[in-house]
Amino acid sequence: SGMSWSWGWASAGSSILAEFGTLHLEFLHLSELSGNPVFAEKASEPSLAPVRNIRRVLSRVEKPQGLYPNFLSPVTGSWVQHHVSIGGLGDSFYEYLIKSWLMSDKKDSEAKKMYDDALEAIEKHLVKKSAGGLTYIAEWRGGILDHKMGHLACFSGGMIALGAQHSTGDRRQRHMELAAEITSTCHESYTRSDTKLGPEAFRFDAGSEATATRLSERYYILRPEVVESYMYLWRLTHQPKYRHWGWEVVQALEKHCRVEAGFSGIRDVYTTTPSHDNMQQSFFLAETLKYLYLLFCEDDVLSLEDWVFNTEAHPLPINHTDLKA
Q1: What is the rounded radius of gyration, in angstroms, for the C-alpha atoms of the chain?
Q2: Coiled-coil regions in this chain (predicted)?
Q3: Dihedral sign, CA of 60, 63, 66, 69?
Q4: How far is the C-alpha of 19 from the C-alpha of 39, rounded, in Å?
Q5: What are phi and psi of 315, to 5 degrees?
Q6: Cα 14–Cα 152–Cα 75 angle in degrees, nearest 5
Q7: Structure confidence at residue 59 (pLDDT)
Q8: Alpha carbon of 52 to those of 37, 43, 76: distances in Å?
Q9: Taken in order 22, 27, 28, 33, is the CA torsion positive or negative?
């Protein structure tokens, strides 16, 4: 029907950053395959059509402290709430900026600049160190920090490492260290549980460190983000610990999530006799197992030089201009 529609729960029908900021890669590739520029125009490229395309709107709108809130009004084009999260509701917007640039064979300079600026704001306002020395990315609610990190935010270690490869000097080293520290913190959220699988969210307040303090956050639903970061860090550093950590996950999945018909999520990672939720999420096959497989493969299997992964780990080819013909 051409009617637009938003979730009622999303701050009174707002558009969600991770949804409207995520189709860049797919639309750019669709334009490549079809020869029809309309898809790319909707997502990012300057368009003559009367469409306020997504990226132009986002780069123009004023951002609190340089951060991107999670909800935007599709009517006014302004932010609805000042809730900022690198995890759920925000996550894939950020990775699609750096990946759009890579997929364009480093020609999409607008995407790279937006990524660099966003990461700088995240470093300045959201990256924190716990009393125990763990680096994490807090959430931001109208200027007040919420010292928790969702499992979904653990993809950021891999993203920051990927971006760091294309920086130089101090910035490259700083970002590689940040990526390694965040990935290590996410690993801690796994090792500090009885099942050696990580909770849905973990906190750094009231004396807790990288553990879920709320009953509602103790579950694990076969999520891939932590092993995704292990794969990127292994490919980019070849430090053996990332393969060791990945193997710990394989063993924990076998022990606690394997059921007769496949694999199931568990309701509480802090008990060695977990109850199953009877669900095998689609991303378990698309992402969790694929990233584990790639972690133990040779680097030329879906090489990072030739492929980018969309947010569900589907590989899309980098548009090497010298191969165009």
Answers
A1: 20
A2: none
A3: negative
A4: 16
A5: -80, 135
A6: 10
A7: 87
A8: 16, 10, 12
A9: positive
C-alpha separations of 2 from 53, 131, 142, 232, 274 in Å:
17, 52, 34, 39, 46
Does this model's pTM top 0.85?
yes
Q: How confident is the model at residue 322 (pLDDT cuts 50, 70, 90)?
A: low
Q: Could you say which architecture CATH assigns to the domain 130-313?
A: Alpha/alpha barrel (1.50)
Q: Is 311 annotated as a binding residue?
A: yes
CA–CA distances in Å: residue 65 to residues 105, 134, 238, 287, 307: 30, 24, 36, 33, 33
- Report residue 35 as tokens: 């020869």
* C-alpha triplet 109, 23, 286: angle, nearest 5°: 115
For strand 307-309 and strand 262-263, is the pairing parallel, antiparallel, or unpaired? Answer: unpaired
Over the stretch 225-271, which tens digit does the pLDDT of each residue have? Answer: 999 999 999 999 999 999 999 999 999 999 999 999 999 999 999 99
228 in active site: no
Active-site residue (options: 181, 200, 225, 287): 200
Lowest mean pLDDT among 48-57, 93-102, 154-163, 198-207: 48-57
CA distances from 124 to 98, 110, 117, 119, 209 (A): 19, 21, 11, 8, 21
